[in-house]
Amino acid sequence: xxxxxxxSALGLLLLTGCSQEKKDDEPWQPLFNGKxxxxxxxxxxxxxxxxxxxxxxxxxxxxxPNSFLTTNKMYKDFILEVDYKVDSTMNxxxxxxxxxxxxxxxxxxxxxxxxxxxxxxxxxAGIYDEGRRGWxxxxxxxxxxxxxxxxxDWNHYRIEAIGDTIKTWINGVPxxxxxxxxxxxGFIALxxxxxxxxxxxxxxxxxxxxxxxxxxxxxxxxxxxTPIKPVITQNxxxxxxxxxxxQMLWDGKTTNGWRGAKLDHFPxxxxxxxxxxxxxxxxxxxxxxxxxxxxTLQQYGDFELKVDFKITYGANSGIKYYVDPDLNKxxxxxxxxxxxILDDDHHPDAKLxxxxxxxxxxxxxxxxxADPAKPIHPIGEWNTAYIVAxxxxxxxxxxxxxxxxxxxxxxxxxxxxxxxxxxxxxxxxQLERGNILLQDHGNKVFFKxxxxxxxx
Length: 456
Hints:
mainly beta; Jelly Rolls; 2 domains; nine-stranded mixed beta sheet; 4 helices; about 10% helix; elongated
């Protein structure tokens, strides 16, 4: 028995050694030089970041928002490992594939965050979407990962971001597995969370051994399998959206909940569903001449609406709201307020309209021009339209930036209508409730993640 135990222990030692040897062969590179903060820039709040004994120390201060120490370099696919120790009363996180641009809420840092949560909730290594969608992968059903966190001690994270998949481990325990295509590139950042005005400053979080395998090599070669079931966000409500009362307006698979704007059923041609995308097909750019527009079966009053869209070269389409399909039974598109979708660079409509530019992407079609500084992604990439309609106040957002707002049922709005192509329609834009519409303008356009939050 003694010999058996000795051999078993030796075998375990050899296996451990082999595992460590394999790790030593991986092409790790330090993200932090252990001496100063060269290669890093602070964004957001004014928390104090310093270097002490070869470690990065973040210290809380009062009267400042979340602070982020960001890498100057942007990363796509990578594997990151880091050790940290956090005050038990703090909250923090590690940003990955994150960004900060003037167009997005005046430079607010936004993107995926691997949570550091020493509270009783214990969601450390869960995935949060900072400044955007909130919680994507909480650890509500992962007690092993919750229990893996070491209070007032060093913890180790492994984070893999490869393609559309983000996986995390805490102290070797699998924590999260997310499949999401919102952002493919950004900086890495170390967060010091804001504190309340009455909270004592000076609490610290410390990071060390910050190492990365970056996209200079085939990162997928070094990926680790995880038993965690993936959380897939395409055409699904996120954890946060469910809590906040959002509903799927299109299920990503069927035509349920939709019909032709001038039909009692979904069009038999002109639209297809493929790979989780709802696609209006090209038909020589003719408005509603093939399959025609589609509308929701249900009507809505006040609401928030999110739609991801992707255009092709020269494409024209739109998202209409407060639509009354019975208003126009003739040729052309059904009538309603329209969030324009357009290839501004290659479609002639971009230079037309009641006011020049009022037919550009994200504009209120033919009435109000969207902010020219709007952040539009190139042809072939996804964009997110967000529309808020509450108490007759309307906002259009594009990729996180508010690009216009107006109040319908006002004299100013009625004057705009009287000067536009809509002047022939009595009480245009005045409906209390109406359908949501996706437009067939004869160009190929893709839609997905169609979600609504009814407000009344």
